[in-house]
Write a sequence for this structure.
């Protein structure tokens, strides 16, 4: 019998923590998890899930408008925010329950409490001391408030899910995917939206053609873009809240939604008592095996600030549990992770951008821009961009990028091909499904340009 209360203690019952705990228990380990706020973590409660439900709501409004062009005599009525909020919250509560039950069924001991370190093997959990042979830190992150006067007047991403009504006018500050998704869904639900961000284009780090197409799509959706702006202050003003920037922009809206980044949830965790060193902004650097500076303490998910996505946190949590307690040591690959931006229309991508590929060597770029069939009829200005990045020497498709209807659904399949190492010729000999937009990915025959090398 081990000298410790548990073989494994997981701090945080979010995407990564729940998966890691459940799989470890399945391997026969004595496992406990502490969750201080909500089972299922950010994704289920204030992230992917409630956001996607609101994105769907916004899309229905769009479809109602387009339906007339297809012969339906529909009238788009007012949107009932309270009804949407109730449906969303019921779904989140259902998923909360599933997460709790998954843990219970797997034989994991649950603590509805905050856990903090006392020493490298001891935690304080809801007023109790608990010891564990190994500990996994899966505490995720939280939205950051910028250090500007009046920042407390802004809403953070969590706050969107407790708003009682749709604000009529919203300023969204930030150019990352969360900012864009909120701007787009609020606009889709009927708000007037101004998007204020620092860079010349939104989505820093994404492919340049996609960034340009995204800016155009946001404008077409009726969002007012304010690039190249650094926030200076927020203040109460007649009619709402005023945002001013160092460049002299001044806007007033009912609400200002701040989406300028996230911070790891490590403050007050007692990491120093466990001898764990932190990195930039308090994140926990890890080895390729997820170990912290203490070999028996591991960190997974957003707290490591690598690729902050749910499937990455779960894949890594699963692999870690297999490695520690199964008979199959392995590492989850975080190469070629597909990702999406659920704007309207959405964007999705996998693999390298043109810019990154060009740094590695000569690359061929294939681009298609078109109006999908739905919108040749609906006459909505929703254009599609598709792009492949191909290594000239190996012929492998290094990256795929898309902005347009169903981009996320399409990209999941493309990601399988790219992970499997498909070449451009493999794409070319794949027969398309007609008539779809997706078939364009296997019919791009004319190179747009050659870069790199
Ligand atoms: P989390 O899910 O954040 O879980 C950490 C948990 O630890 C939390 O429940 C927290 O309460 C708990 N905790 C913290 N400290 C303690 C403590 N000391 N003791 C006990 N419990 C503690 N990802 C996607 O893949 N697709 C998307 O579409 C997507 N959309 C998003 C939209 C928004 C608005 C946000 C904010 C995020 C989104 N993400 C999305 C990111 C995704 O939510 C995260 O990558 C994922 O939740 C990370 O999982 P995690 O296990 O690392 O942390």
């Amino acid at each position: 019998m081990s000298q410790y209360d548990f073989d494994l203690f997981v701090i945080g019952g979010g995407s990564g923590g729940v998966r890691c705990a459940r799989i470890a228990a399945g391997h026969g380990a004595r496992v406990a998890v502490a969750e201080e706020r909500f089972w299922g973590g950010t994704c289920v409660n204030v992230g992917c899930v409630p956001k996607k439900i609101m994105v769907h709501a916004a899309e229905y409004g769009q479809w109602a408008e387009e339906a007339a062009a297809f012969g339906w005599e529909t009238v788009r009525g007012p949107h009932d925010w309270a009804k949407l909020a109730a449906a969303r919250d019921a779904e989140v509560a259902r998923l909360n329950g599933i997460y709790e039950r998954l843990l219970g069924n797997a034989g994991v001991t649950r603590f509805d409490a905050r856990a903090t370190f006392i020493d490298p093997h001891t935690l304080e959990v809801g007023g109790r001391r608990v010891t564990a042979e190994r500990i996994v830190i899966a505490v995720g992150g939280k939205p950051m408030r910028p250090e500007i006067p009046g920042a407390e007047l802004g809403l953070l991403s969590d706050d969107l899910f407790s708003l009682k009504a749709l604000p009529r006018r919203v300023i969204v500050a930030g150019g990352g995917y969360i900012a864009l998704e909120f701007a787009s869904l609020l606009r889709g639900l009927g708000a007037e939206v101004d998007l204020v961000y620092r860079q010349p284009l939104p989505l820093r780090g994404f492919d340049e053609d996609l960034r340009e197409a995204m800016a155009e799509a946001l404008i077409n959706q009726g969002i007012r873009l304010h690039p190249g702006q650094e926030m200076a202050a927020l203040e109460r003003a007649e009619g709402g809240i005023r945002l001013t920037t160092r460049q002299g922009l001044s806007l007033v809206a009912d609400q200002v939604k701040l989406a300028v980044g996230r911070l790891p949830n490590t403050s007050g965790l007692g990491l120093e008592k466990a001898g764990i060193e932190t990195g930039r902004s308090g994140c926990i650097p890890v080895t390729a095996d997820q170990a912290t500076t203490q070999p028996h303490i591991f960190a997974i998910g957003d707290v490591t600030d690598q690729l902050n996505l749910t499937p990455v946190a779960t894949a890594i949590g699963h692999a870690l549990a297999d490695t520690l307690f199964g008979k199959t040591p392995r590492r989850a690959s975080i190469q070629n992770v597909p990702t999406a931006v659920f704007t309207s229309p959405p964007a999705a991508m996998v693999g390298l951008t043109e810019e990154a590929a060009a740094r590695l060597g000569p690359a061929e770029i294939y681009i298609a821009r078109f109006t999908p069939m739905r919108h040749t009829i609906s006459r909505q200005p929703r254009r599609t961009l598709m792009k492949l990045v191909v290594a000239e020497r190996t012929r492998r498709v290094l990256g795929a990028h898309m902005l347009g209807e169903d981009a996320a659904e399409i990209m999941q399949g493309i990601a399988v091909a790219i992970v499997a190492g498909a070449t451009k010729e493999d794409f070319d000999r794949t027969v398309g499904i007609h008539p779809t937009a997706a078939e364009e990915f296997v019919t791009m025959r004319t190179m747009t340009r050659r870069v790199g090398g």
Summary: Residues 11-17, 34-38, 41-43, 47-48, 51, 114-116, 138-140, 157, 178, 265, 269, 301-303, 308-311, 313 surround flavin-adenine dinucleotide (CB under 6 Å). The chain has a mean pLDDT of 96.
